[in-house]
Amino acid sequence: MRFFLPAALAALLLSLASTVFAADEDGYDLWLRYRPLSGTAQTAVKAQARGIVLPGAATPTTNAALAELQRGLAGMLGKAPAPEARIADGSLLLATPTRLPALTASDAALRADLAALGEEGYLLRATRVLGHKVTLIAANSDIGLLYGAYAWLRGAAIGSTASVSSAPKLQLRLLNHWDNLDRSVERGYSGQSIWDWWGLPEIKDARYTDYARANASLGINGTVLNNVNSKPEVLTASFIAKTAAVADILRPYGIKVYLSARFSTPLELHETSTADPLAPEVRQWWKNKADEIYKAIPDFGGFLVKANSEGQPGPQDYHRTHADGANMLAAAVAPHKGIVMWRAFVYAPKGAHLDEDRAKQAYEEFKPLDGQFAANVLVQVKNGAIDFQPREPFHPLFGAMPKTPLMMEFQITKEYLGYSTDLAYLGTMYEETLESDTRTGQGAGKTVAQTLSGMAGVANIGSDRNWSGSHFDQANWYAYGKLAWNPQAKAKDIAAEWAALTFGPDQRVVRPIVDIMMVSREAVVDYMTPLGLHHMMGTSHHHGPAPWVDNLERPDWNPVYYHRADRNGIGFNRTASGSNALSQYAPEIARQYADPRTTPEQLLLWFHHLPWDYAMPSGRTLWAELLARYDRGVAETKAMQARWSALKPLIDARRYAEVDQRLTRQVNNAILWRDACIAYFQSVSGLPLPPGVQAPAHPLEYYQSLRYPYAPGRG
Ligand code: BDP
User: Fold this and answer.
1) DSSP letter at 442?
2) CATH number of 30-166: 2.30.42.10, 3.30.379.10, 2.40.10.340, 3.60.20.30?
3) What own/partner pairs with CB < 8 Å and gap ≥ 24 does 578-584 have?
4) Neighbours of 627 (CB within 10 A)
5) CATH 3.20.20.80-classified regions of the chain
6) Separation of alpha carbons 3 and 476, rounded Å
7) pLDDT at 234
8) Average pLDDT of the chain?
9) pLDDT tens digit sequence for 497-508
10) Which of 315, 438, 455, 713 is in Cβ range 3.0-4.6 Å of 399 for a Cys bridge?
11) CB-count burial class (<10 Å; 0-12, 13-18, 19+) for 35
12) Ligand 1 mean position to 407 CA, how many Å?
């Protein structure tokens, strides 16, 4: 007994210490928390930053870099070193070759390294400059220095002192806010829009600067402030002034503002008699509008457009093509170096060829236009051909439009993956798409990442104190930003970095959190839409299971259209004997996926309609496999919660509880999906549940009667 007491006491004290010292956090600081470092870590960081030196004239961007370093060091060390004029041993030196010609004058290697970094890249290293041992943050521009400062602070916070050379692989790294002018947010689950249009331009929320800091820390360099379902008013003088006020705040952080433009704006404002993109009065109106915007915002980024999609106006209303529409806007912004991001998220308008598989329609409309877009137009393509489902194969347009710069559109907000209640780390989902081999291009083929010129993420940011509605949803913003900078980065590394920055670098915390994150999205796929199923969510709000819905005005809004389950089988036949959507992929892929045996199991029912007794590689029938996936989804979700519970002593009480409550909700959600889907598919297949599979808690009618009239996110 006497031997055990000290050990037990020590354990108790340790857990008390962690509990007592982990002060409650509300999540506002995101991954820029700068909490006090441990003693040894402090000594190491102090030695790298005895003084901060940034030669040359101050600019708003260098001021932002210095302010962030001082904020970070004050937090981590208790006291920040002052900026100093002279380089000395132990300086943290921020320099460009223009600011400090001596930096590269006699250092050919550094000169070459810097040349490889382009305008926005940076490098971090311990080196000698002018005879002094310094920690160097070097870049070719002030914005590169700011990015470098954030990277150095990250390393300091998590104890990494490695040399780094980093340059963005994509030029355009944007957030898309689906925020309305009344501050509601379409598909937003984290409060109101952060953009207080009513208060602007005079009233500038301090959050705008923190928003800029968070995004700059990831290298995000553009933001579209308003919803793709846009309103004409956003292009009137008063909103241009409001937009300019936001642009002024974001500019020092390297972030340009863009607006979603409604195609019929001049007509709806009664300033033209048509919105036909070839009509001279319309072309002139947009030119004048662009001039007006650029007068207020000289570095305005350009327009994002959703046209002829889900009821939005567009060039097809005038029998013109997407290229005619995009090029007309492109001509208006070209003299100012602006761009147009034209979305490829289109499917047939009401009444038009509705017999065509919806998954084929964007490709059919856009592929023939390859080569017809103006040089400053990018086509923005969602990751998959349907609509941000928990799992989709990559969109066949990637790799198919070699003459057109393409942007990837990912959804960060979790419209179809459990809002901000369910924990689903999307880094793995983005990675899966980006790594997919399109089998186009030279040799082995280009991955989706290699076909991109830019990336857009539909933001999950709102007025909630923690910005994203839940702590773990911050990781999706983070992962998106990191992958926009480097689409070949690894989701797991990003998760580990985020977890260390967000919950502290203690590996006892980081490892289990990364484990939770890495299984989380697959768990959601399993309990919602396993084996390639898709689009089975509730009507309009997209919450909860509704595989039975078959009565909406368009067939391709109905879940039954997508799963096609009947007595004999389940799945959407997209092979040559079905819709042949497969033919839109490169021949190697089309051949491989033509056979269910060589189709990845996770996409099986996306491409094939199979009998319930189809033999799966596991040895189970398809019916039994489907049930097993639903059960696995529930089990994984419970396991995630158990892993989180074990972290209780190591995480501040507030964040622990907020995550725990959501995990409880998620387990219930997973059970609901499982039970409702099993009840429904059993009613269709007529098959018994194999031994050991638990029957749903309620009859099918119960699930069919559930309604969510006040579900959030409908804007
Ligand atoms: C769908 C959303 C809808 C968006 C649309 C889009 O449900 O709110 O407007 O995508 O991307 O997923 O335009």
Assistant:
1) S
2) 3.30.379.10
3) 578/357, 578/609, 579/356, 579/357, 579/359, 579/360, 580/360, 581/357, 581/359, 581/360, 581/385, 581/396, 581/607, 582/607, 584/360, 584/363, 584/367, 584/396, 584/400
4) 24
5) 172-503
6) 47
7) 98
8) 95
9) 999 999 999 999
10) 438
11) middle
12) 17
Q: Cβ(186) to ligand 1 under 6 A?
A: yes
Which whole number is the average pLDDT over 421-427?
98
Residue 599 alpha carbon to ligand 1 centre in Å? 29
The pairing of beta strand 83-84 with beta strand 51-53: parallel
Sheet holding 91-95, edge to edge: 83-84, 51-53, 91-95, 132-139, 122-129, 164-166
- Spell out the residues 6+ positions from residue 259 whose beta carbon is closer than 8 angstroms to its own: 224, 225, 226, 230, 234, 235, 243, 293, 303, 304
409: tokens are 């559109």
> SS3 helix, strand, coil % of the chain, rounded to 5?
45, 10, 45
Rounded Cα distance between 563 and 605, Å, is 8
Which pair of structure tokens corresponds to residue 341?
A: 């991001």
Pocket test for ligand 1, best of 262, 345, 346 (most atoms within 8 A of CB): 345
Interval 546-556 mean pLDDT: 94
Q: Tell me: pLDDT of 228 over 60.
A: yes
pLDDT of residue 95 exceeding 50: yes
**What is the Cα 684 distance to its own chain's centre?**
36
Q: What angle do CA 238, 241, 245 make, to 5 degrees?
A: 145
442 pLDDT above the threshold of 90: no
Atom of ligand 1 nearest to the CA of 714: 8
Confidence of residue 6 (pLDDT cuts 50, 70, 90): low
Mean pLDDT of 331-346: 98
Q: Would you say the CB of residue 527 lies under 6 angstroms from ligand 1? A: no
pLDDT at 714: 87
Q: Is the CB of 229 under 6 A from ligand 1?
A: yes
Into which CATH architecture does domain 172-503 fall? Alpha-Beta Barrel (3.20)
Nearest CA to ligand 1 atom 10: 387
Domain with CATH 3.30.379.10 in the chain: 30-166
The SS3 of residue 36 is coil
pLDDT at residue 13 is higher than 60: no
Among candidate residues 335, 258, 242, 237, the one with its CA nearest the CA of residue 300:
258
Start-end of H helices in 529-621: 559-563, 587-594, 604-607
Q: How much distance in Å is there from the Cα of 375 to the middle of ligand 1?
A: 27
| Assigned superfamily of 528-572+609-705 | Alpha-glucuronidase, C-terminal domain (3.90.1330.10)
Ramachandran angles phi, psi of 452, nearest 5°: -95, 150
Helix H or strand E segment including 174 = strand 172-176
Burial environment of residue 711 by CB neighbours within 10 A (0 to 12, 13 to 18, 19 or more): middle
Nearest CA to ligand 1 atom 2: 187
**Cβ of 387 less than 6 Å from ligand 1:** yes
pLDDT for 19 beyond 50? no
Question: By mean pLDDT, which of 98-107, 287-296, 334-343 is the weakest?
Answer: 98-107
Nearest to 712 by CA among 415, 460, 438, 454: 415
Q: Two tokens at 469?
A: 């509605």
Q: How many whole angstroms from 397 Cα to the centroid of ligand 1?
A: 19
Ligand 1 atom at shortest distance from the alpha carbon of 310: 13
The ranges of the chain annotated as CATH 3.90.1330.10 are: 528-572+609-705
Task: Please write the tens of the pLDDT for every residue from 630-654.
Answer: 999 999 999 999 999 999 999 999 9
Active site residues: 310, 387, 415
**What region does 412 belong to: left with phi over 0, alpha with psi -120 to 50, or beta?**
alpha
Tokens representing 182?
């009344």
Asked if residue 21 has pLDDT above 90, the reply is no
**Residues 128, 103: contact at Cβ < 8 Å?**
no
